[in-house]
Write a structure and sequence with these properties.
By secondary structure, the protein is an alpha/beta fold. It folds into two domains: about 200 residues, inorganic pyrophosphatase (n-terminal core); about 120 residues, Roll (Diaminopimelate Epimerase, Chain A, domain 1), CATH 3.10.310.30. It has 13 helices and twelve strands.
Length: about 325
Amino acid sequence: MNYQESQLILEEIKKAKRILINLHRGPDPDSYGSAFALYYFVISLNKKAEVVVSSDSELSDFLSSLEDSYIINFVDYSKLNFNNYDLFISPDSGSWQQIVNNNLVKIPDIPIIVIDHHPTNEKFGKLNFIEAKASSCSEMIYKLFQDWNFDINSKVAKILLTGIVADTGAFSFSDNAETLRIAANLIDLGASKTEIITKMFRNKKFETLKYWGQCFDLLEFDQENMFVWLATPFEIESKYKINDSNFSTMFANIVDGTNFGVVMSEDEPKSLKISFRSRNNFDVSKIAEDLGGGGHKAAAGAKVDGLDFNEAVEKVLTVCRKYAKKN
């Protein structure tokens, strides 16, 4: 048995007849992988299940290309009748607001199971299963499936490996041997690491490369505090409309002489999305938490709303420099 929580989670699933499974707002491949792996497990038990995401979310080109994406329902949580469901399973979501993105939508009075690997999780469920040591939520789901004796087919293996590859930066964020063993097992079950990495990181539109060119022109190096930073205003984001360029994963943590990188993009006016990537064992999750976000030591994120672009950027840089000096 991998987890003592496994049986409790399984009992809740077996009791339910109609189950809601969410992707977090602006889903990434781990959100997708963990949600859809659970979806296929639930329907294998002859349960009704729905995969939902907030209606203000966009799928990246990569996620939109996956064969299961048509199953996703885009919902306005303020209009969703949660009482139509017996159970809400929330994988890879650190907070209720990361799901609904609406302060008026309160946590519903139905059983909620939270399954997450973010140490900053707000534990908003009836049952909260948090494993901060896991590389990804998809890795956690794999180990739950082992405990539940669920036979993973090639489709589910591919989904799970997609989540693991994404959240490990193609296995570049850690040397966890168990994660590599799990990946090997999923490959044996029919998943292709090469295919996933090629589609995720090496299959960019020409417009994305042009966007990267703009990003490199704007990239700044704070030599005193040993980090690089990039901030793209709404004018650039709206011009290129690149909803998932992977710039932070691919470039923010590769600059010699730095401890971390931060990428900021104003996706909507007065809404700054922030991604942090670490080098040299620097803990970027502390910076993200200070800005109201969260994540992991090697990769984290946050969002600043309600401020003009320059003001929001300066707020982020002030926090970055504070933690850089502490280090």
